[in-house]
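Repro:
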Amino acid sequence: MGTMKSPCIKICQIDQVSRLCTGCFRTLDEIASWSSFDDTQRQAIMNSLDTRRMRFSAGEAALT
């Protein structure tokens, strides 16, 4: 199991269009599985969060 800290900021609301948490910008699956991911998997998610945040702020609905 990995040691990387969760990006959760305790603002847990799922956007109905993007299906992302509006606090940390992870998917529900990523949130639920975070504790079982290794650091490589966690880093891959962390690397995508800034892009997701920018796309969400720009109003893009389809986020991947």
